[in-house]
Amino acid sequence: MGLVVQKYGGTSVGSPERICGVADRIVRTRRSGHDLVVVVSAMGDSTDDLVDLARRVSSEDHPREMDMLLTAGERISMALVSMAVNDRGQQAVSFTGSQSGIVTDTSHTRAKILEIRADRIREELAKGRIVIVAGFQGVSKEREVTTLGRGGSDTTAVALAAALQATACEIYTDVDGVYTADPRVVPEARKLADLSYDEMLEMASLGAKVLHNRSVELARRYGVPLHVLSSFHGNEGTRIRKGVTMEQVVIRGIAHDPDVAKIALLGVPDRPGVASEIFQAVGGRGVNVRMIVQASAEGGKNDVTFAVGTHDVKIVLPVVEAARATLGARAFLYDPDVAILSVVGEGLATSAGTAGTVFRVLAEADVNIELISTSSITITCMVRQSDVERAVRALHQALQLEQGP
Ligand code: ASP
Ligand code: MG
């Protein structure tokens, strides 16, 4: 029957009643003949509460102590889930990230997994036990407790599924899958039965915050089939796997993100090394740049425009001002009132004319496009923040995404 990895998010284990519900589901899966490793998040908003507590005793950064503090949230869930499973007549044992053999680098609060020494998990599985693992955490090569960054429990689940060669990795969450657009913006958005890894990465990086991006990347690299499901009802969720796109489906969905800012460096010299200088500096501060457009404005000069997440603006502005001074650029502009939307689908690679359709729909909705960039599976536009929801609704309707394949 094979090994299944299940991951339960914070809402799914948010109360004693919900933990009992999760335990019922775990026991059902075990009785159907599967070996089972379960990854849990901290209960409800308890990670946020712990961050808040830390702020109330200190205004400094204490990365090591922060990791000690935050890993406690997942330890509470793992122990409670294990108790509830044992009460239901199945043997379970809970493990911290360190006990699970999840070895990370030393970057506190955003560690990367280096390897998984899963011997202890395998031993327990061999004894017929269900192993409950605290998500979002590991132990560094220097034997310090680390965390994988907010939302990191998904990554724990996928990494364990890859290391243990699980046949499935099920992510139980408070939504029942991935939709053609954000259902809060487009009420007729439709749940997608399946998506490719690349499509999911595009949907996720633009704010369809169902899965931690790193978990999708990891799943793609190791070919781990992912299944996103609701822990509250039995609906079929969304499956994420390789090359599933049926040929007639061109566009899978529209992702959007209102929390971005536009930054432009005007009149930078037109010579080798300029873009490198700007983006090495920005990237060196750990900032993820979302769109880059360079165009030559006047002879010998270029304008370089790009987008970053709102939360990165404070870090980026001084870096860009420094680059402006060194490069002798004429000026730099900063505009926080923009948003990005992206039409996503593997079929875009081979369909002619979709870009034209997208731009026509936006024009008819009176939405001005400030930047455009495309890849083989996306058409991405920057628009005014106040226009983005109207733009997404117009596109969803015109592209008939509410209708299934
Ligand atoms: N509890 C952590 C967080 O809230 C990790 C997770 O839930 O994935 O970010
Ligand atoms: Mg999450």
SSE inventory with pairings:
Elements (H helix, E strand, L loop, with lengths): L2 E6 L7 H16 L3 E6 L5 H12 L5 H25 L4 E4 L6 E3 L8 E4 L2 H8 L3 E5 L2 E4 L4 E3 L5 H11 L4 E6 L20 E3 H9 L7 H10 L3 E5 L7 E4 L11 E17 L4 H11 L4 E8 L4 E9 L3 H15 L3 E14 L9 H11 L4 E7 L2 E7 L3 H11 L7
Parallel strand pairs: 1-2, 1-9, 2-6, 3-6, 4-7, 9-11, 10-12
Antiparallel strand pairs: 4-5, 7-8, 11-12, 13-15, 13-16, 14-15, 16-18, 17-18
Helix pairs in contact: 1-3, 2-3, 5-7, 6-7, 8-9
The structure holds aspartic acid and magnesium ion.
Provide a descriptive summary of the structure in words.
The chain has 405 residues and is of the alpha/beta class. It has a domain of 172 residues: Acetylglutamate kinase-like (Carbamate kinase, 3-Layer(aba) Sandwich), CATH 3.40.1160. The chain is 34% helix and 28% strand. It contains 11 helices and 18 strands. An 8-stranded mixed sheet has the order 3-6-2-1-9-11-12-10, sandwiched between helices. It has a 6-stranded antiparallel sheet with strand order 14-15-13-16-18-17. Helix 1 packs across helix 3, helix 2 packs antiparallel against helix 3 and helix 6 packs antiparallel against helix 7. The longest helix is centred in the N-terminal third of the chain and has 25 residues. It is globular, with a radius of gyration of 23 Å. The structure holds aspartic acid (ASP) and magnesium ion. Magnesium ion (MG) binds next to loops.
